Amino acid sequence: MLYLDNSATTKIHPEVLEAMMPYLQEEYGNPSSKFYSLAENAKKAVAKAREQVATLLGCDPDEVVFTSGATESNNMIIKGIADYYGREAGANNRLLTTKVEHPSVIETFNFLGERGYNVSFLDVDQYARVGVEQVKEAAAKMQPLLTSIMWGNNEIGSLNPIEELAKVFEENRQFFHTDATQVIGKVPVDMSKMPGLRFLSMSGHKIGGPKGVGAAIIRKQSKEIYTRLTPLMHGGGQENNYRSGTLAVHNIVGLGKAAEVAETNLENNVQRLKELENYLTDIFKKNLTGKVKFNSDEQDKIPGLISLQFIGVNNELLIKKLSAYIALSSGSACSSSKPSHVLNAAGKSLEEVRQTIRITLDSKIDESDLKVFDKIK
Ligand code: PLP
């Protein structure tokens, strides 16, 4: 099976699995327990993972909150800020996002909208991106409490100008969050250079880590002052009171190792993904002139993600037909029963949406694996 759905999830990295195994076997202590070695070992392992994630993202270790994944991180940050600052009558309850976010952001906004928050969704360009001036104007006009804009889009691969947007939010001192789930290990992320970017979400299973773990980065207001938000989970006060519940040590260790691998391999990974992507797009361009149409801006997108239309071909039928040999996607794995809200917002017709295939590569693939596409004429 040729697996080309790496934006949906990735195979666990061998080094990650190796790092996790002791914490599923002999090292089973609860890091919240005290004094005996099993607990202390678990605590040390969690602290190491926190360092690894912080190093990858350029933040302080105590700004890393372990969660069950990016869905939870998005919910935690958006609902947490909305509730903490915007719940009281007369408070600023305005929240801004885009029309092409992952459902874990869109549905969180809808949930808050139904509860009386003032939510707005920005339009996007033909590649599902927002512009700096557009966001600047909207933020000046609306004065949102929080703006949430994804770094890289999971369906079409387009990148938003997060560094520049962080400057806008640094100047206007409004809260800014990005869902960076799809760009980790593919785009350099250094939050220390972006003080305007206060919150970030990421997930383990998109970067060779295990499923069921992720991180929410909640930057401090200053060296000593933590940013307050209402937690989703109340209980024993783990994770600095942001997220109660016994820590999933094995998963956290896996996330830490995956972060380290992503950091170490970033340049090679990007270079290899671009080579493979060029190889494959050249095949499509050579063999299928006039029969395929690319949805993304080829110069400015997540390396290794190709979103394209096979003109006149139903995507689901094609994916099913190839499914014995190749794993492909029509867009996202989360909402595959609904026509894509992303392509729709990018101005694609229903027909174009139904012709769209998403191919997401992995740097370990070989060109010879991709030769099968040369047979499609
Ligand atoms: N955000 C984006 C952009 C995604 O692509 C995904 C997963 O598809 C998520 C959030 C959700 O991540 P998780 O599976 O860790 O909840």
Automatic annotation (TrEMBL):
Name under which the protein is recorded: Cysteine desulfurase family protein
Cofactors, names only: pyridoxal 5'-phosphate
Domain of life: Bacteria
Pfam families given in the database record: Aminotran_5
Family designation: Belongs to the class-V pyridoxal-phosphate-dependent aminotransferase family. NifS/IscS subfamily.
Keywords: Iron, Iron-sulfur, Metal-binding, Pyridoxal phosphate, Transferase
PANTHER family reported in the protein's UniProt record: CYSTEINE DESULFURASE, CYSTEINE DESULFURYLASE FAMILY MEMBER
Catalytic activity: (sulfur carrier)-H + L-cysteine = (sulfur carrier)-SH + L-alanine
Domain Aminotransferase class V: 3-371
